[in-house]
Design brief:
Number of strands: 15
Number of helices: 11
Family: Belongs to the Mrp/NBP35 ATP-binding proteins family. NUBP2/CFD1 subfamily.
Keywords: 4Fe-4S, Aminoacyl-tRNA synthetase, ATP-binding, Cytoplasm, Iron, Iron-sulfur, Ligase, Metal-binding, Nucleotide-binding
Subcellular location: Cytoplasm
Helix content: 25-40%
CATH architecture: 3-Layer(aba) Sandwich
Protein name: Methionyl-tRNA synthetase
CATH class: Alpha Beta
GO molecular function: 4 iron, 4 sulfur cluster binding; aminoacyl-tRNA ligase activity; ATP binding; ATP-dependent FeS chaperone activity; metal ion binding
Strand content: 15-25%
C-alpha cells in the first residue's frame, strides 16, 4: 500500500490559477519542518510543476529503488543544540528545537529538461497520479504530506481524492489487546486530514475559489482554512504593508461559506529573492563570506534562510494552527 509511512495528508487547493498555491505549499512545509515535523511535498500539477523551481532543485532526478521511487531530499532532520555563551560558561537553559526533514516529488524530476512539455489527456494524468500515490517510498515517520494541486476541479483533483479515499477505506481497524480486553486501533494508515484553500482578495478570484470549496463539500474533504494570498505589498525597506490591490475578499468568502479563515499574506519580494538565490549572488558580488561553518550552512539551506524572511512568522502561525486542527481531529 502506498503512503504507509505518511501520517497525515493535506491538499493545497484553489479554483483559480496564479494565486500562489505552490509558494504557500512550500512555506507551510518549511514552517512545519522548523516546528519539528518530517514533511513531504507532492506536486501533482503535471502540466505546470513549480515546486522544483521554488526549491532550486531542477537538476535533481528521482531515484528508482526496490518497491518504488525515492523522493528528492531537500534537507535532513536535525536535532537542536543548546546555546553556549562562551567556552567557560555552562550551556544556557534553552530547550533544543528539533528540525524535521523535507522531501519532494514532482513530475519535473522525471522530465528530460525544464522546457519539456507534458501533453497528456485525462486518463494518462490519472494513471500518473495513481502511480505517485502507490509507488513512492516516503521516508519513515513522515508526519505531513502536502499535495500541491493545479487550478480547477478536474482530472488531477478527482484522481488524487479518489485514491486517498480508497486508501482510507482499505485500512481496516486492527485488534489490539489491552490486558484481557480487545480494542480496535484504527490509526494504522495515512489520513486525508483536510485541505488548505488559497485565494487572492479580488472578487474574480474568490468566485472561482467558491467552486473549490463546493468541490470539498461534494468530495467530503474537511477545509482546514482559507489563506488570502497577495493581500497587500510588504515594503522591503521598512516592512510596512500597503493594500495595492485590495484586502479582505478571502475573509468575507470564508465567513459566507462557513469555513475557517487562517489569515492574509502580503506580497514580499524578499521571498522571491530567497527562492531565486539572489542573496547568495549579492554576497558573492560584495565579497561577503560566512565567518564559520554554521553560517555557511545557513546560507545554503533554504529552511535556515527562510527564517530571515518577513513571511516566516505568518506561516509559522498558519502551520501551528493547522497542526492543532489535525491533532484535535485525530484525538476526537
Amino acid at each position: 500500500m502506498g503512503l504507509e509511512n505518511v501520517k497525515h495528508v493535506v491538499l493545497v487547493l484553489s479554483g483559480k490559477g496564479g494565486v500562489g498555491k505552490s509558494s504557500v505549499t512550500l512555506q507551510l512545509a518549511l514552517s512545519l519542518t522548523q516546528q519539528g515535523h518530517n514533511v513531504g511535498i507532492l506536486d501533482i500539477d503535471l502540466t505546470g510543476p513549480s515546486i522544483p523551481r521554488l526549491l532550486n532543485l531542477e537538476d535533481k532526478k528521482v531515484t528508482q529503488a526496490p518497491g518504488g521511487w525515492l523522493p528528492v531530499k531537500v534537507h535532513d532532520a536535525r536535532d537542536g543544540e543548546a546555546e553556549t555563551s562562551n567556552g567557560h560558561e555552562a550551556p544556557l537553559p534553552v530547550t533544543p528545537s528539533r528540525r524535521g526533514s523535507l522531501h519532494a516529488l514532482s513530475l519535473a524530476f522525471l522530465l528530460p529538461s525544464r522546457s519539456s512539455a507534458v501533453i497528456w489527456r485525462g486518463p494518462k494524468k490519472t494513471a500518473m497520479i495513481r502511480q505517485f500515490v502507490s509507488d513512492v517510498l516516503w521516508p519513515p515517520n513522515t508526519d505531513y504530506l502536502l499535495i500541491d494541486t493545479p487550478p480547477g476541479t478536474s482530472d488531477e483533483h478527482i484522481a488524487i481524492v479518489e485514491e486517498l479515499h480508497k486508501l482510507a477505506a482499505d485500512v481496516q481497524p486492527q485488534p489490539t489487546r489491552n490486558g484481557n480486553a480487545l480494542s480496535l486501533e484504527s490509526d494504522t494508515g495515512p489520513k486525508l486530514s483536510g485541505a488548505v484553500v488559497v485565494t487572492t482578495p479580488q472578487a474574480i478570484s474568490t468566485a472561482d475559489v467558491r467552486k473549490e470549496l463546493n468541490f470539498c463539500v461534494k468530495t467530503q474533504i474537511r477545509v482546514l482554512g482559507v489563506i488570502e494570498n497577495m493581500a497587500g505589498y510588504m515594503c522591503p525597506c521598512c516592512g510596512e504593508i500597503s493594500n495595492v490591490f485590495s484586502k479582505g475578499g478571502g475573509e468575507v468568502m470564508a465567513r459566507e461559506c462557513n469555513v475557517p479563515f487562517l489569515g492574509s499574506v502580503p506580497i514580499d519580494t524578499g521571498f522571491g529573492a530567497l527562492v531565486e538565490g539572489v542573496k547568495e549572488e549579492q554576497n558573492a558580488v560584495n565579497g561577503t563570506q560566512p565567518t564559520n561553518g554554521e553560517a555557511s550552512r545557513k546560507s545554503t539551506e533554504l529552511v535556515e534562510r527562510y527564517k530571515e524572511c518577513g513571511l516566516c512568522p505568518i506561516f509559522s502561525d498558519f502551520a501551528s494552527r493547522i497542526d492543532q486542527k489535525v491533532r484535535d481531529a485525530t484525538t476526537s
